[in-house]
Amino acid sequence: MKIKRQFLQCSGFALGFALTAGFAQTQAQHENEVTYNREAARVINENCVVCHREGGIGPMAFESYEQVRPWAPLIQLKVANREMPPYAYDHGIGIQNLQGDWRLSADEIDTLVSWVDQGALLGDPDIELPPPDLRDLDEWNFADRLGQPDLVVPSIPIDIPAAGNDIWHKHIVPSGLTTDRCIRAVQVKPKGNAATVVHHANSSMQTLNEDGNLERMTEGMLTEYAMGKWGEIMPEDVCRVLPAGALVSWDIHMFPGGIGATAPGTVIEDNVVELGLWLHPQGFEETAAFQQDLKSYEIGIPRREREYNLVIPPHGEIMTQGFHSFDHPIRIDSFQPHGHLRMVAASLEIYHPDTGALEPVSQISNWSATWHHSHIFDPDVAPLVPAGAVLVFKQWYDNTAANPNNPDPDQWVSGGNRTTDEMTHAWVAITHLDDEGYQRLMAEREQAAARDLAVAGQE
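^ thats the sequence. predicted structure below, dont judge the formating
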């Protein structure tokens, strides 16, 4: 009996220990559980719903758990592969501090991946989620930060058919500006469904000379819009001048039927593309430290010869290179590579001839023509380039069946303006410096780095 009582006591102790351990394990599992209501919805609402909403450009809506749940495995795949949100820019290579960066953080990716791995659970139904911030679909991208544009210059209305060949429309409209001003930010916005049929929309400035004839300004580029582009914002120390009485020259390329998953494939009447300009107060041009311009930099092949010299064979791949240098120091404010359906990657580097070093600036290894981005560097890390250093541009093209954007790998592809042709250039915003300005900016960065190091040492 004594042995039996001891056995029962030990068994009871073991059972109690097991129950306690099981409870602790269950509690730990519950604490590590990722649910929609507690974690996943925040990431989705802050990063996905801007496009994935009723009437948005995303092909499905993600405004509620019921809408999101069927797509959970696809969300996990796209997020884990960094295909969504659609901002192709390599991690760990070159400058990572960007304005308008849509990429998810590693923690946000882990949250969504874990949520799906655990069954994409709703979680506590009593948790009340704040509704996603669904701004007006036609709202300007900089409205939250800068308010409404100071100046909106629309194109003339253009009808776009449901099918057919590429269409180009060039025309000039007045800006309505009566005094010289400095541009603070710029965005081009096709209205409504036109966003999927406008391949690009270049806007530049022209003026009337003393003879009353149109004259294109040497530094007159306003912006190059291509599908998906967020816009451009200038550093606070520069002026990109918009002169009084300037005329806006539109060069709009449209692709009937559209490109991408949400292409309407229908006639779009009275298509209008709008240019929104945010301006510095009058007189800012007198205090701005530097001048900035935006230009297209050809990569290896002069524009006048591009139609004949850029050739990609069927089922072939090529890479182009371009080199550009300046006789004065510069700052690179933004970088936007450009190509069409066969382009798949791009990079920007700086070659320093005095040391032989090749400095990486940007690399995009999964480029797509359906999403163009002007990668805008934070002003405190934007590359400062000494006189004589060389900007090295590279772009890669894939005319094989492995390229999901390739409409026909059996075709020869040459340089040209059609969507099915190819291009090889990059749009770069550059602030032009003198030696004094370059040295001042370098000294300011060195002082900032020293302060950061001192603060880190105190922590």
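Residues 1-10, 13-28 have pLDDT under 50 and may be disordered.
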